[in-house]
Amino acid sequence: MKLSLPALREMKRDQRPIVMITAYDHPSGRIVDAAGVDVVLVGDSAANVVLGHSTTVPATMDEMTILTRAVSRGVGRALVVGDLPFMSYQVSDAEAVANGGRLIKEGGADAVKLEGAGPSLDRVRALVAAGMPVMGHLGLTPQTATALGGHKAQGRQAEAAERLFMDAVALEQAGCFAIVLEAVPAPVAGSITRRVTIPTIGIGSGPETDGQVLVLHDMLGIRSGDGPQPRFVKRYADIGAEMSRAVAEYADEVRAHAYPAEQHTYSIPDDELAAFQAAVGAGSIDDNRLADW
Ligand code: KIV
Fold first, then answer.
1. What is the DSSP letter of 232?
2. Cα separations (Å) of 38 from 8, 205, 221?
3. Amino acid 290: pLDDT
4. Given a cut of 80, is residue 24 above it in pLDDT?
5. Distance between alpha carbon 240 and the CA centroid of its chain, in Å?
6. How far apart are CA 82 and CA 1, in angstroms?
7. To the nearest 5 percent, what fractions of the chain are helix, strand and coil?
8. Angle, alpha carbons 142-147-148 (nearest 5°)
9. Separation of 278 CA from ligand 1 center, angstroms?
10. Of 182, 208, 242, 272, which residue is the catalytic one?
11. Is 106 a catalytic residue?
């Protein structure tokens, strides 16, 4: 049964950690759901980890809708959150509602996520008024990382930390059902978590948030570049190395005529084979027969 938004809030109340992870395709959606995660985020990190861009900025609504639809089809219990990409909600409330509606109606998401507070607060109110649950995202907001001075921790000065705190309260008041806190010092994330009544989901924000989120490809060791990874990434497997080993073994076996073997091929009854061979002979086909084919 689908996890409900009130159930998520109960998890915060009961101090049961919320597990969120990203996914970008149908098999991954099935796997993470079967593994028992609570929330699956179809993040615009797709731009980095599956589409080969160096930032999340190029992700489009069409791409996010297709990926969200693929994931939603594979997920039964977990809440599916579709990420609104850069410039899909910044221009106006009307565009935010139309694009949020696409992720829910076409993509099958249960909720949408957007970044920031300030001007995003009106967007949250508009989306919620249109009946769409909204997850907020504060701290390091990758869509505006350039304006933040790069991909680095946020809220490390008192004034910036206070701004994050106030923004979180404002997002709660605007109607968000949860907030992602990315790259925020642990004590600041803890203060926010204790102040708001909605769940906080941390990424690089320490252990005091109500839940944690990681990018699936980061924790599985599937890299799309050679750059350094953020310090908060813990690698739970090295699937990239295993993929590479498997594909190299396949290539070796093809080149050595070791694959395919008997068990990978289909048979044909002897009499049918004989008739076929009689029909095509040694491979020379009458030109007239080919012309009539
Ligand atoms: O796009 C994404 O994957 C995210 C997570 C890092 C929270 O926003």
1. T
2. 8, 19, 22
3. 80
4. yes
5. 18
6. 19
7. 45, 10, 45
8. 65
9. 62
10. 182
11. no
